[in-house]
């Protein structure tokens, strides 16, 4: 484990509840989740469709409001923040990667990656340097001036990853980052996630693929909005990645 | 504003250049139309401004016995330049046996730098043509002389000289005839010398141009002191301007209505374009928010982006307005719009643009930050009607398109309104056009039964007061002759007089167009225009007391007539109601002509018999500028409709991006897919255009009547557009809209459709 020895956890939730109102009927999506993610930890959240894993990760990033419970980010209570305070918190401490990449279609790859840095007040020069570094790391330097629409899915997701990492966030939240990719691109993206994790990045990743979850330090399984399993993955197993590695044991 | 925000705005503008250009164009069109309209209005009601500027006029004209020293006048404080001194002499113009006083003024064959007459027809004085004179245009019209016309003048010594009109000119230094008398004729020095050889019977006319027009009275005082008793008469630019100013409230009200309508249409177009754009961008906006853009930042970006387009449009419009004034209207308008109305137009439009952009921007700011959230998926199922339609084998594309049109209720409503309102305004514009046509075709229905007016003149009629009437009646085209008199009447409680018109008698009344109440049937009864009823605050059936030439008169107002003159502030009584001293002899005879007769021809015939005949100005002639504005407005409104339509197609395509794959998978050919999309938009177009045209023709007559009432003419002038006008307009609108909808639909139908979002 690369957990930092001291300091508050990167992320913590206390009895987090989300209830949607659908046609006047309350539909609970998350029912009292207590989750603690230490700094530098890589947590995979698994579960079948509708188990509340996406809702949970959206709430962790402030994209969705909680019904009750507490969210602590980096030792600060965040669930009581206003919408704009959440936005500012996101710029500084949280990076998001989505299943459908969600690059801004009108902007070039370079602009997409520079946007978060510029947003948090970095100078255009600093933002450019950071972008050049990130795109270089992700092997995308020659795609900098392309429109996102002209890139393959894997390339787009790598750009999205670069954008999420632009501000060196405290936590990287990834919602099914490989859900829309073929196996080769999945492997590429996972390799990159592993790489940034080794550099000390805290990652919370939602996935329903056991093979993808196997990359994490710890796998949390949700069912019907509740944590049914929370366990570390043996480090030895993580080294061996491949098509044959499909049998997973949980719970 | 943050660099990130700026970068997003520019990226978005780059991505939709055509749409952005259309928004700019629409706003620019509205602003240009408003500026042009206001310029024409200002110029039309205040012709002095243009004439004075173009002729580099003199602010003060001095009439002195002897020629003053120009150098001494130029040396006066505040005087920048001097025109003249010119020699001037009074004479009598004789033409066809009738005499009119005229002022002759010498001028050089080369036009002077200051106080320059503007030649409108023919040419200026020529040193080789001693008989040629140039007449002031309004005077020439009044006496019925044109270029090439011959007349004679009698000097004070009684000698007659034959002269020829070689040109007609206007001047900002002389008011229009007959408000400004005597009429003016410019002659060569030698010609004047012949007509009036005696220097003692002529005067000297000198113009002073001032650095600051506000110093006029001060300079006048100084000059009078300086010239010590020599000055006989002084006229200033203020008097000239006042004599030229038209109080054309009807025109003003019409233009104001157009302006407001145009602004409403522009607001709708911008709100629609911005709203549509924001709707198609919700996913991007959600992504931005997930990156850490705050709600306020999103609102600010959208406001800035769309607001900037609007402001760019305003700037372009102001520029275009100026260019049109300078180039397209160079002949009619010389002076650009003064700054107050220009500023009002620019600021008013800016306000409208910002308000129109604000609501969609605010809604954009409220987008939830989860980019994956589906945008309210279009729902709907095949209705029984649709099933029935499919059952009777209507083309499936039509049925599916019709269903698509209404799946998203709010955008469907916005599109329909976005098209209905421009169409309604176009219909109202056509109604104005029809009203003008009615003015022209049936002047008797708007209170102008008489096309010609005969004045007994000075020579033959005094002996025999009835003679002009007999002469006129002898003409085959004249149906009726009504003796008449116009007098000023004092009304108790009013500081000014009103016009009392007595035309026709109780037994033989003038055919007024009575729209309320009834015609007068007895002495002591009167009918009045809306303007007078408003002014005196009386209603039909009320009695009112007036004083005419010292004689008190009590009349009962029994009806309201359409009154195109004097802003409707006219009281019409039978001639025999007036005291004989006021009524006899009649000042003029109004001639009603046979339907279809040419007033010009009749006038020429009667003038040939020595009568002084003038033609009544049709209100439609004064309002002819409205026609230009209607055409411009229709163009701008069509542009706005187009902008709305493009937004609608963009939103429609976005909604159907996923459906398209399904439709194709179901086996619809590209042509059927295209037909589906066009039907979806086209149905809304037909509903919008139809509703707009119906609403427009329903309200146009009422609205024009409202304007009529506000302008004093009175309700009852409004006409709805004729079907022959409306039908082509509707068909053109629908046809053009379908063509516009076809292009994106065609492209979408042929494009390879992605199955996943993005």
From TrEMBL, chain A:
Source organism (scientific name): Sphaerisporangium melleum
GO molecular function: ATP binding; ATP hydrolysis activity; transmembrane transporter activity
Alphabetic keyword roster: ATP-binding, Nucleotide-binding, Transport
Taxonomic placement: Bacteria, Bacillati, Actinomycetota, Actinomycetes, Streptosporangiales
Protein name: Macrolide ABC transporter ATP-binding protein
Pfam families: ABC_tran
Domain ABC transporter: 11-249
Keyword Chaperone appears in the UniProt entry: no
SUPFAM superfamilies: P-loop containing nucleoside triphosphate hydrolases (SSF52540)
GO CC annotation: membrane protein complex; plasma membrane
CDD domains given in the database record: ABC_MJ0796_LolCDE_FtsE
UniProt KW Zinc-finger keyword: no
UniProtKB/TrEMBL annotation, chain B:
Record keywords: Cell membrane, Membrane, Transmembrane, Transmembrane helix
CC per GO annotation: plasma membrane
Subcellular location field: Cell membrane
One Pfam family named in its UniProt record: FtsX
Transmembrane segments: 20-41, 250-271, 308-330, 342-362, 412-436, 628-653, 674-704, 724-743
Topology within the bilayer: Multi-pass membrane protein
UniProt family annotation: Belongs to the ABC-4 integral membrane protein family.
Protein name: ABC3 transporter permease C-terminal domain-containing protein
């Amino acid at each position: 484990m690369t957990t930092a020895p001291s300091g508050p956890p990167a992320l913590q939730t206390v009895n987090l509840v989300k209830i949607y109102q659908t046609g006047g009927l309350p539909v609970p999506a998350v029912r009292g989740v207590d989750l603690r993610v230490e700094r530098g930890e890589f947590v995979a959240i698994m579960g079948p469709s509708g188990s509340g894993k996406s809702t949970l990760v959206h709430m962790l990033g402030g994209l969705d409001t909680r019904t009750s419970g507490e969210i602590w980010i980096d030792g600060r209570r965040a669930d009581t923040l206003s919408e704009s305070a959440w936005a500012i918190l996101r710029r500084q401490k949280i990076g998001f990667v989505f299943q459908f990449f969600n690059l801004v279609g009108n902007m070039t790859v370079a602009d997409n990656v520079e946007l978060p840095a510029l947003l948090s007040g970095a100078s255009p020069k600093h933002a450019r340097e950071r972008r050049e570094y990130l795109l270089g790391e992700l092997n995308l330097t020659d795609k900098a001036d392309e429109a996102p629409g002209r890139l393959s899915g894997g390339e787009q997701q790598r750009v999205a990853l670069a954008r999420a990492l632009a501000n060196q966030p405290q936590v990287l939240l990834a919602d099914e980052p490989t859900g829309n990719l073929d196996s080769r691109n999945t492997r590429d993206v996972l390799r990159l996630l592993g790489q940034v994790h080794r550099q000390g990045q805290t990652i919370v990743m939602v996935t329903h693929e056991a093979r993808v979850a196997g990359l994490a330090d710890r796998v949390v399984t949700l069912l019907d909005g509740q944590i049914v399993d929370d366990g570390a993955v043996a480090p030895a197993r993580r080294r061996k990645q491949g098509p044959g590695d499909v049998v997973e044991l949980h719970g | 504003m943050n660099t990130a925000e700026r970068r997003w705005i520019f990226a978005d503008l780059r991505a939709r250049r055509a749409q952005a250009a259309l928004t700019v164009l629409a706003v620019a069109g509205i602003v240009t139309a408003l500026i042009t309209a206001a310029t024409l209005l200002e110029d039309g009601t205040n012709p002095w401004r243009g004439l004075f500027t173009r002729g580099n006029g003199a602010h003060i004209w001095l009439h002195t016995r002897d020629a003053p020293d120009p150098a001494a006048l130029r040396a006066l404080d505040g005087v920048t330049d001097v025109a003249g001194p010119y020699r001037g002499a009074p004479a009598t113009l004789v033409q066809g046996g009738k005499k009119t006083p005229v002022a002759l003024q010498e001028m050089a064959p080369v036009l002077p730098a200051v106080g320059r007459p503007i030649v409108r027809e023919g040419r200026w004085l020529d040193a080789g043509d001693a008989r040629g004179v140039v007449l002031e245009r309004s005077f020439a019209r009044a006496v019925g002389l044109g270029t090439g016309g011959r007349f004679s003048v009698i000097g004070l010594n009684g000698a007659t000289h034959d002269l020829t009109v070689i040109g007609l000119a206007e001047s900002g230094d002389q008011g229009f005839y007959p408000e400004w008398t005597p009429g003016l004729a410019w002659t060569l020095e030698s010609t004047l010398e012949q007509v009036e050889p005696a220097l003692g019977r002529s005067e000297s006319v000198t113009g002073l141009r001032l650095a600051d027009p506000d110093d006029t009275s001060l300079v006048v005082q100084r000059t009078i002191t300086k010239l010590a008793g020599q000055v006989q008469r002084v006229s200033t630019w203020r008097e000239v301007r006042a004599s030229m100013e038209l109080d054309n409230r009807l025109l003003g009200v019409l233009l104001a209505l157009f302006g407001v309508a145009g602004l409403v249409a522009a607001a709708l177009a911008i709100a629609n374009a911005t709203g549509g754009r924001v709707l198609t961008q919700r996913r991007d906006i959600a992504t931005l928010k997930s990156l850490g853009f705050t709600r306020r930042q999103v609102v600010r970006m959208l406001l800035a982006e769309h607001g900037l387009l609007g402001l760019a449009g305003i700037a372009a419009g102001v520029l275009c307005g100026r260019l049109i004034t300078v180039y397209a209207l160079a002949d009619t308008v010389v002076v650009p719009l003064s700054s107050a109305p220009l500023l009002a137009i620019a600021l008013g439009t800016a306000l409208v643009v910002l308000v129109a952009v604000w609501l969609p921007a605010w809604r954009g700011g409220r987008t939830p930050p989860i980019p994956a959230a589906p945008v309210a998926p279009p729902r709907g199922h095949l209705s029984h009607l649709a099933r029935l339609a499919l059952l009777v084998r209507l083309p499936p594309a039509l049925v599916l398109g019709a269903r698509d049109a209404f799946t998203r209720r709010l955008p469907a409503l916005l599109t329909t309104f976005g098209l209905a309102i421009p169409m309604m305004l176009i219909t109202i514009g056509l109604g104005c056009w029809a009203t003008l046509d009615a003015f022209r075709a049936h002047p008797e229905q708007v209170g102008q039964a008489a096309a010609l007016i005969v004045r007994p003149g000075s020579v033959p009629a005094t002996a025999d007061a009835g003679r002009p009437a007999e002469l006129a009646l002898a003409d085959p085209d004249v149906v009726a002759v009504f003796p008449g008199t116009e007098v000023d009447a004092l009304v108790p409680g009013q500081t000014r007089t009103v016009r009392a018109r007595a035309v026709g008698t109780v037994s033989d009344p003038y055919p007024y167009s009575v729209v309320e109440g009834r015609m007068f049937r007895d002495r002591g009864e009167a009918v009045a225009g809306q303007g007078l009823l408003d002014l005196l605050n009386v209603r039909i059936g009320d009695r009112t007391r007036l004083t005419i030439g010292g004689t008190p008169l009590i009349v009962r107002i029994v009806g309201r007539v359409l009154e195109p003159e004097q802003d409707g502030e006219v009281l019409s009584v039978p001639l025999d109601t007036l005291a004989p001293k006021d009524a006899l002899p009649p000042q003029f005879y109004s001639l009603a002509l046979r339907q279809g007769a040419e007033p010009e021809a009749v006038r020429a015939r009667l003038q040939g018999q020595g009568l002084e005949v003038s033609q009544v100005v049709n209100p439609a002639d004064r309002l002819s500028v409205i026609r230009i504005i209607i055409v411009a407005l229709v163009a701008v409104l069509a542009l706005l409709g187009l902008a709305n339509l493009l937004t609608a197609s963009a939103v429609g395509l976005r909604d159907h991006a996923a459906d398209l794959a399904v439709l194709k998978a179901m086996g619809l050919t590209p042509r059927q897919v295209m037909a589906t999309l066009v039907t979806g938009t086209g149905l809304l177009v037909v509903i919008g255009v139809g509703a707009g045209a119906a609403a427009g023709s329903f309200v146009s007559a009422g609205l024009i009547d409202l304007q009529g009432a506000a302008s004093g003419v009175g309700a009852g002038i409004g006409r709805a557009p004729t079907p022959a006008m409306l039908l082509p307009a509707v068909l053109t609108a629908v046809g053009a809209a379908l063509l516009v909808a076809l292009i994106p639909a065609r492209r979408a139908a042929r494009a390879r459709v992605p199955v996943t979002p993005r």
